[in-house]
Amino acid sequence: MARIASEAMREQLEVYFIMGSVNCAKPPAEILAEAIAGGITLFQFREKGSGALVGEQKYELAKQLQHICQEHGIPFIVNDDVELALALDADGVHIGQEDGDARIVREKIGDKILGVSAHNLQEALAAVAAGADYIGVGPIYPTKSKEDAKKAQGPGIIRLLRRHGIAIPLVAIGGITAGNVGEVIAAGADGVSVISAIASAPSPAVAARQLAQAVHLSKKGAQK
Ligand SMILES: Cc1ncc(COP(=O)(O)OP(=O)(O)O)c(N)n1
Ligand SMILES: Cc1nc(C(=O)O)sc1CCOP(=O)(O)O
Ligand SMILES: [Mg+2]
């Protein structure tokens, strides 16, 4: 297997859904299946926060959700837990600034997808140098889904990273809704990453579809 090509990565980032059991008011498998029906392009298993599953229960949920992704051709990324990603032979891993050295994670996972969080230019440059396939930038807007989230920076941080030469695939995260997708794509993001906009929606399928439509429309507008 070779490293993912940048253009394929950009497409997979378009509607990047993140979820764990703590984000779900109904069975996670149902929410994921509905989100896939609505058009998500990538999935991250993020089993984190108060009440999160651990050990065997975490592994079993991950396996169940990975199976659903596999049935529909949606790449399955594991948040934080490199060992779990390897045990499941997941498609990739996402790590943040407090999750260890991205270079070492790259060595451990070989050609699997590596996503790294960055909050400023220095972190973004280091992620590129470490071999990240994409960068997650946030929070763009205020979020209730991450207990230790930093202060929201607005879409200007994406514009700044692009202006300073960060050219690799980039996804915006934190408080993203169909209503603000336009400004993050216009700023230079390849896609949007969401928890609550899909997981807490009355219909995850409708929410995912609205996000996908907003991304496609915004990308068309950005080409003009
Ligand atoms: C796509 C994406 N971007 C950013 C993050 C946040 O990662 P991190 O800073 O490590 O925080 P936690 O998610 O681990 O709490 C992400 N998970 N995904
Ligand atoms: C997992 C995560 N990481 C963030 C960061 O800023 O790095 S914000 C966030 C939570 C995103 O959830 P929602 O779409 O509900 O705002
Ligand atoms: Mg992390």
UniProtKB/TrEMBL annotation:
Belongs to the thiamine-phosphate synthase family. This is Thiamine-phosphate synthase. HAMAP family: TMP_synthase (MF_00097). Pathway: Cofactor biosynthesis; thiamine diphosphate biosynthesis; thiamine phosphate from 4-amino-2-methyl-5-diphosphomethylpyrimidine and 4-methyl-5-(2-phosphoethyl)-thiazole: step 1/1. It catalyses: 4-methyl-5-(2-phosphooxyethyl)-thiazole + 4-amino-2-methyl-5-(diphosphooxymethyl)pyrimidine + H(+) = thiamine phosphate + diphosphate; 2-(2-carboxy-4-methylthiazol-5-yl)ethyl phosphate + 4-amino-2-methyl-5-(diphosphooxymethyl)pyrimidine + 2 H(+) = thiamine phosphate + CO2 + diphosphate; 2-[(2R,5Z)-2-carboxy-4-methylthiazol-5(2H)-ylidene]ethyl phosphate + 4-amino-2-methyl-5-(diphosphooxymethyl)pyrimidine + 2 H(+) = thiamine phosphate + CO2 + diphosphate. Residues 15-198 form the Thiamine phosphate synthase/TenI domain. It comes from the Bacteria. Mg(2+) binds at residues 80, 99. GO terms for cellular component: cytoplasm. The lineage of its organism: Bacteria, Bacillati, Bacillota, Bacilli, Bacillales. Its cofactor is Mg(2+). Signal peptide: none annotated. Condenses 4-methyl-5-(beta-hydroxyethyl)thiazole monophosphate (THZ-P) and 2-methyl-4-amino-5-hydroxymethyl pyrimidine pyrophosphate (HMP-PP) to form thiamine monophosphate (TMP). It is an enzyme of class 2 (transferase).
